[in-house]
Design a protein that fits this description.
Length: about 150
C-alpha cells in the first residue's frame, strides 16, 4: 500500500496544500506540504521485527529540505506518521554506511530501521554505532500529523 499517497489525500481533504514533486518507481519521494519540502517514504510495519525498514539513496544526503516524512501502516490502516526534521534525519543517516542492496548490480543504500521498543521509537542506521535517534517525539497519529507541518 502507498501510505504516503493516502496521507497526502487525507491532508488535501483537510485543506492542506500538498503536491508530490517527484516519484521514484511509482512511489512519492519528495513532496511539498504546506510549503515545506518533505523527503517521503511509505512503508508497511513489520510486526515480527517491530519496525519500519527504509532504504535511503546516498544521493539524497546532498538535497535540502525541511522534514523527512515517513508514512507507515499495516492491515490496510495508515497508523504512523513520522515528521522528522531534515537535519536530524539525514544527520543520523550520514553516520551509517551505505551497502549494496542487490546481488546482480551495484545499488548503494543506507539501511534505516525505525523500531518500536516498548512504545519508544528509535531510528538506527546499519554500519553506524552512534547512528541512533529517538524519534518518539516525531511520531504522530495520521489525524495529528499535519499540526507540526502547519505550525512552523
Amino acid at each position: 500500500m502507498n501510505w504516503a499517497d493516502l496521507f497526502f489525500k487525507q491532508a488535501r481533504n483537510r485543506g492542506a496544500e500538498c503536491a508530490v514533486k517527484d516519484y521514484v518507481n511509482g512511489w512519492p519521494e519528495t513532496a511539498l506540504l504546506e510549503g515545506k519540502v518533505c523527503y517521503t517514504k511509505s512503508k508497511s510495519y513489520d510486526r515480527s521485527k517491530r519496525e519500519y525498514f527504509i532504504g535511503v539513496d546516498p544521493k539524497k544526503l546532498a538535497d535540502k529540505g525541511d522534514y523527512a516524512l515517513i508514512c507507515g501502516g499495516m492491515d490496510g490502516q495508515l497508523n504512523d506518521i513520522f515528521v522528522i526534521p531534515w537535519t536530524q534525519f539525514f544527520g543520523t543517516v550520514n553516520q551509517g554506511e551505505p551497502v549494496n542492496t542487490y546481488k546482480d548490480r551495484e545499488y548503494l543504500q543506507y539501511k534505516v530501521h525505525i523500531r518500536n521498543d516498548g512504545g519508544r521509537w528509535t531510528m538506527s542506521v546499519q554500519g553506524g554505532s552512534r547512528s541512533r535517534l529517538d524519534v518518539s517525539q516525531f511520531r504522530f497519529d495520521p489525524n495529528e500529523a499535519l499540526e507540526p507541518l502547519m505550525s512552523h
